[in-house]
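Closing statement on the adenosine-5'-diphosphate sub-project.
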Amino acid sequence: MKLQEIGEFGLIDKLSEGCLHKENHVIRAIGDDAAVFIQSAGEVVLVTTDMLVERVHFLRNATTGFNLGYKALAVNLSDIAAMGASAREAFVSIAIPEDCSVEFIEDMYKGIKYLAASFQVNLLGGDTTASPKDLVINVVVVGSAPQEEILYRDGAKNKDLIYCTGYLGDSRAGCHLIVNGIKTESDGLKALKNAHLIPRPMLMEGKFLGGFGGVHAAIDISDGLSSDLGHILKQSRVGAKIYAEKMPISENLKIFCKQFNLDPVKYAVDGGEDYVLLFTVSPDRAQKLYKKYHEIFEFPLFEIGEINDSDQLVLEFPNGKTEQILPTGWNHFKKT
Ligand code: ADP
Ligand code: MG
């Protein structure tokens, strides 16, 4: 169906069904000039926004509407997770080109609503406009948390241990398979594609880390370990050493790297869009945290290195050789 047939308001009507998942605190949802909701008592508000632009972040003919919508919300939820907070409401704005069908947009909202439902996030509004050529999707997420539980990038301290909540490099490998149209028969390679297409935002994990005590700094891996750990180091005015043999590399990534003759450690260190959490914790809290986390989430944390008082990020190999790591992750306006 063409958008011309139903127009902006017809589309909004179609999209505004099934948007509420936790509505006790919602006074006005989609349909007025602004949404109105009650903030949880004793908590502060967090707001994050991320925009996906066709041909910059995705290729419309290489994704499904569902996956695109899912991911647009997922990357925002991941930012809230990285702050140790809970996600509450979402707002979605779209600029739609003429050659994009109503069905594609509806499919996109299926992806958004699927993920929103699984984390009980309400979709409370947005904006809809025409676009001359490319599809643009912008999501805003509102979160909340007790102020003292929020995790910032600038809190890392000398001697903190550095942990990751999941594998690194899988999403980059999946992206490589997708962009190059490489057929994936095996479950392992399919899992890499899924790591790129439908990453699970680690909201429960982030909330746990914020509430545990002793976690000093956190960020989600969007641009790659080298860049994102780099942000923590720069903002906290510290350095770090990470260990090659401790990099969380999945069996799937090992197989992929063997097949394409790549170094899995380098691939994991520079890979982006894994949306796992990276955090630093006081050494005297680390063991307890590790144990409790494992109990709750039935998945281990990966200790990858430690913070020091240098001003560098260094990767150490098992033979004792070291290499300084410079941020090589994605940077939109930087020419390399
Ligand atoms: P206004 O003219 O005040 O901007 P709109 O006609 O754009 O109002 O929007 C009407 C309602 O529909 C508002 O509640 C708005 O938040 C919601 N809305 C518009 N576009 C979207 C969208 N793409 N997704 C979700 N809600 C939307
Ligand atoms: Mg509007």
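The chain has two domains: 3-149, 161-324. With this model delivered, the sub-project is considered complete and its resources will be redirected to Aim 3.
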